[in-house]
TrEMBL record:
PANTHER family from the UniProt entry: ARGININE-HYDROXYLASE NDUFAF5, MITOCHONDRIAL (PTHR13090:SF1)
SUPFAM superfamilies tied to this protein: S-adenosyl-L-methionine-dependent methyltransferases (SSF53335)
Keywords: Methyltransferase, Transferase
Source species, domain of life: Bacteria
GO biological process, one term: methylation
UniProt-recorded name of the protein: Methyltransferase
Length: 252
């Protein structure tokens, strides 16, 4: 009999540690959070456009509680959960009567993405909506190029494989959602240095959690990466692109 166990691409323990570090960093007033803020703004715009005002919602990865607060101000009863605190998206969700389930920046690092989507659908009541946003294919092109330069002829696994729009659309449809939608938008951010780019990624919980990771960059390799990143700069800043993939669907 064929095994249905998903491949182990990401290390769950490393993932939790990265998110816990991010949660501590996000308590600082000057912590970067532009990726999460962009996702939250997009979710709110979608809900307003759809005129969807659920009675009960589950929000995953809402660091700081901004989205939950906005939903609660509209009368929604919100439960917020966080992978860094042990919430497991690859297990059945603790409810099955929700009008809305939202995941913010977390599903790109689960090993069983189809399973996570199935669990989200199962948690919805009839007429409920799922929205999931996370970095998708095409993100971090400058960093990827710099890593290839640093590693030379033996590229190491350093940056995550990412889902593109087509694969995302197929996943939402295959996991049983009605009116499935997958779309992508980009967010461009300029960095003055390689180090600042890594610092921002670390502060937002988007660093390497691969199960099979490459060895840390040595001093010489890091210098090559910094040089390549700097060479891509225009007017002193290297523009990095984040492609934000959003998946959505209904339970009918």
């Amino acid at each position: 009999m064929a095994s249905h166990t998903p491949p182990r691409i990401f290390d769950p323990h490393r993932r939790m540690a990265v998110r816990r570090r991010m949660l501590r960093t996000q308590k600082m007033l000057d912590a970067p959070r532009y990726l999460l803020d962009d996702m939250i703004e997009d979710v709110l715009e979608r809900l307003a456009f759809l005129r969807h005002q659920p009675e009960r919602a589950l929000v995953i990865g809402d660091v700081g509680g901004v989205l939950g607060g906005r939903l609660e101000s509209g009368g929604t009863q919100v439960t917020s959960v966080e992978p860094g605190h042990g919430f497991d998206e690859e297990a059945p969700l603790p409810d099955n009567d929700l009008g809305l389930v939202v995941s913010l920046g977390t599903l790109d690092t689960v090993n069983d993405l189809p399973g996570a989507l199935v669990h989200m659908r199962s948690a919805l009541s009839i007429g409920g909506l799922m929205i999931a946003s996370f970095p998708g294919a095409g993100s971090l092109p400058a960093l990827r190029s710099a890593m290839l330069v640093a590693d030379g002829e033996r590229p190491a696994p350093r940056i995550h494989p990412l889902v593109d729009v087509r694969a995302g659309a197929q996943l939402v449809q295959r996991t049983g959602f009605a009116d499935p939608v997958a779309d992508s938008r980009h967010l461009d951010v300029g960095f003055r240095s390689f180090a600042r780019a890594i610092e921002d990624l670390r502060a937002q919980g988007h660093t390497n959690v691969l199960a099979e990771r490459g060895a840390p960059l040595g001093r010489a390799a890091r210098a090559l990466a910094e040089q390549a990143y700097r060479a891509a700069a225009v007017d002193g800043r290297t523009v990095e692109r984040f492609e934000i993939l959003t998946l959505s669907g209904w339970r009918r």
